[in-house]
Design goal:
alpha/beta; Rossmann fold; seven-stranded parallel beta sheet; two-stranded parallel ribbon; 10 helices; 11 strands
Length: 315
């Protein structure tokens, strides 16, 4: 079985390729520079970028399944007027072009990595996103992901191709960057953390668990299709996450607890409400339907995945 992976040198793509090779899959990686690929015995196809004009004929030759990991996650200023256009060119039109080419090339299955941000930025206490939740993305990135989902679903209806869309929460693991990397760095410092008195709850997915689910989808794409929320099935508060990191790192865990309304007021004064929500807001996904329909269950605990991430950060 031949698998084509876009975003092959990225955080998720590189880990996926490594696991696919260990499972003896025939792998084709899509990269911007072949020098960035460290794995041997792998076909590398260089593309200048993924957009509406990318030519995929050579890359998709004899491919059975495409796993589309590539996408644009950041622009210099997400609030700029043309942010939607910038995201759409890659996340929407680039994805549509790739799937059309996959259909024309006779690819049998297409796995698209989307985001919970296609649905929204936060959930109410005690609530969780599920397939019945009305999608209300709040930024250009989330809107581009939702538009891509809808466009790919429309294409799949009239094609002989199985489509699986995976809506990801925050993914963490070895070589993680962005918000989780910053939080780990702060948690290592023996300074008091300030937490809301009423703890938040957030869904996460460890890289190992995510890769296991993607490979499960590759193997079973003839048995299920559609949109799937995914997580470690062990939602956590930011406070507990910091506590686990500090326990592993053997760092003292002093903390202060303040009324939620007080922290929210301070965040508003300093115009960091968005950062407050990302750190202390609720963002849960309901994975019960995913587990039931796919027959998959996370092989690793949240603590195991966190330990692997922290162990890698020491090397």
């Amino acid at each position: 079985m031949k698998i084509c992976v876009t975003g092959a040198t990225g955080f998720i793509g590189s880990a996926l390729i490594s696991s696919l090779l260990k499972e003896n899959f025939d792998v084709c990686s899509i990269v911007r520079s072949t020098s960035e690929v460290q794995a041997e015995n792998i076909d590398c196809i260089k593309v200048d970028g993924i957009n509406s004009d990318t030519q995929w004929v050579d890359a998709l030759k004899n491919v059975d399944c495409v796993v589309h990991c590539a996408g644009r996650a950041h622009v210099t200023n997400p609030q700029e007027k043309n942010a939607d256009k910038i995201y759409d060119e890659i996340n929407l039109y680039g994805s549509v072009n790739l799937m059309k080419s996959a259909i024309n090339s006779g690819v049998s299955s297409f796995i698209y990595l989307s985001s919970v941000k296609a649905v929204g930025e936060y959930t109410l206490p005690g609530g969780a996103f599920n397939l019945a939740t009305r999608c209300m993305p709040k930024d250009a990135y989330g809107r581009s992901k939702l538009k891509a989902e809808n466009a790919l679903l429309a294409l799949a209806k009239s094609a002989n191709l199985k489509l699986i869309i995976i809506r990801l929460p925050l993914v963490y693991g070895p070589k993680v960057k962005a918000n989780m990397k910053t939080l780990v760095s702060l948690a290592r410092l023996p300074i008091p953390f300030i937490f809301p008195k009423v703890p938040n709850v957030r869904s996460f997915i460890g890289l190992g668990n995510l890769i296991d689910f993607i490979i499960h989808c590759v193997r079973n794409s003839d048995k299920f299709q559609g949109i799937f929320f995914i997580s470690d099935n062990s939602d956590q508060s930011t406070e507990n996450l910091v506590k686990i990191i500090r326990n592993v790192k053997r760092v003292l865990n002093p903390s202060l607890k303040i009324n939620n309304s007080t922290i929210e007021f301070i965040a508003k004064i300093f115009k960091v409400e968005d950062k407050y929500q990302k750190l202390f807001g609720n963002l849960q996904v309901d994975v019960s339907e995913t587990l039931e329909l796919t027959g998959w269950f996370p092989p690793n605990s949240f603590e195991t995945e966190i330990f692997k991430m922290l162990k890698d950060s020491e090397s």
